[in-house]
Amino acid sequence: MDTFFEISSRGSTVAREVRGGVVTFITMAYIIVLNPLIIGTVPDVDGNFLGGGSAPDLAAVAACTALVAGVVTILMGAVANFPLALATGLGLNAFVAFTVAAQMSWPEAMGLVVLEGLLILVLVLTGFRKAVFEAVPAQLKTAISVGIGLFIALIGLVDAGVVRRTAVGPVPVELGLGGQLQGWPVLVFCLGLFLVMALYARGVRGAILIAIVVTTAVAIAVEALADVGPTTGPSGKVVNPTGWGLNVPALPDRVVATPDFSLIGEVSLFGAFSRVAVVTALLLVFTLMLADFFDTMGTMTAIGAEAGLNDEEGAPPRAQRILVVDSVAAAAGGAASVSSNTSYIESASGVGEGARTGLASVVTGVCFLLATVLSPLVGVIPYEAATPALVLVGFLMMTQVRRIDWNEVEIALPAFLTIVLMPFTYSITAGIGAGFVSFAVLKTVLGKARDVRPLMWLVAGLFVVYFAVEPIGGLLS
Questions:
Q1: Handedness of CA 405, 411, 413, 415 (dihedral sign)
Q2: Of 20, 290, 336, 354, which has the highest C-beta tally within 10 A?
Q3: How far apart are the C-alpha atoms of 25 and 36, rounded to whole Å?
Q4: 133 falls in which pLDDT band (50, 70, 90)?
């Protein structure tokens, strides 16, 4: 095992890898519950839900979500030997649910997801995707890592209810409710945050995992005593703004549940092209592909940098294998009707626990497979117990900002846009695109256009199309 995963040569131990893999699973296990709520509750253009029924089948979506995540994450660990976990991509699944399925049936929408994954796989195997990655300046790659750090810290704060959207007024977000922290769940989050910070500051091994376990225990006790309840009701509407996010912490009535994998294979590969205009279908595939293409590049760069595995050019080891597995995962997600699977930045929480090899990914994948039958246990951990880990990891990734030369304006401004737009737009792809386009523009304005590699020009042009896809689609239709 040590030889296969290069554990000792990367300065790790089996215990660290196992611990890191478990922590990564805990911080991203929410997707098993959240993905069904996004794609399982939205009817397609024919009025049918996933599986073809007239009512949502959330259990089947959850089981298939966990199954695919487990298989492709194990594949990442075994083939690429990299501490990176994969699951259904947030944002991508919303696009499939609210944009793609609104124009066609669910099997046809998932067929486009499969095609998107296969196209990316072709780009990887021909070396194009890796060549694009190598064309990106090292300092822009650093900016991507820093931006993602801020992004996941914001995700943690939003999911915990510390940062919320305002209902009225010019300010889009605020602290808690009406500028004040309210409710027991937020108090539990604060306890978890101070605990994980204290443990990390004292150099305690397993700080993140210990904090999650202890905070979950406290959350269960608080719910038993205060009967807080969930934030949303059965209809999905907010009924208790100070309630628990996603899961209400409580000891489960049962541990094992039989999984339902009936959604696997419910795909119409080319059906979308007979349902909508060919140009429309191609634009939908292009949008999916571009978002998936760069999200993974940014994520693997950030994880590699945090783990200290990247080379001098900012590339992680076995980058080609990482990209191949990610492409296969995208197609596999579509084939199982759970939307495109992609790399998760939450893997950084496992890296923060010491994970440095693919063994951690294998552990995470096994946890996902177990979750297909142990779904009651997955529902025990609330957002408020898991998200403090994301805030700490955001801090760790933010420290890389010192590697950017802020006196060099043609790199500093694109780096700044990359960093701030990721959390502000809730999109890794938007931040990368803004950085790439502004980098090409500034180099041209300063008479240094020759410093921009041809592939960088191509990608910048594609991002211009990506940002303007709606008006372009309107013109072509």
A1: negative
A2: 20
A3: 18
A4: confident
Phi then psi dihedrals of residue 415, to 5 deg: -65, -40
What tokens appear for 160 in the block? 């915990």
Is 266 within 8 Å of 52 (Cβ atoms)?
Answer: yes
CA atoms within 13 Å, Cβ hemisphere of 446: 14
What is Dmax (Cα atoms) for the chain? 68
Cβ–Cβ under 8 Å, residues 390 and 255: no
pTM of the model: 0.74
Residue 400: the pLDDT is 86
Residues whose CB is less than 8 angstroms from the CB of residue 203 and which lie 6 or more positions away in sequence, other chains included: none
**Across 88-103, average pLDDT:** 84
Instruction: Give the integer Cα–Cα distance in Å for 381 and 249.
Output: 6
The neighbouring-strand residues paired with 173 are 165
Rounded to an integer, what distance in angstroms lies between the CA atom of residue 383 and that of residue 234? 18
What's phi and psi for 343, nearest 5 deg? -70, 145
For the chain, give every domain's residue range. Answer: 2-476
Q: What pLDDT is attached to residue 262?
A: 93
- Spatial separation of the C-alpha atoms in residues 319 and 82, rounded to whole Å: 9
Q: How far apart are CA 468 and CA 417, in angstroms?
A: 18
Contacts from 471-477 at CB under 8 Å and sequence distance 24+? 472/283, 473/279, 473/280, 473/283, 476/279, 476/283, 477/277, 477/279, 477/280
How far from each other are the two terminal CA atoms of the chain, in whole angstroms? 56
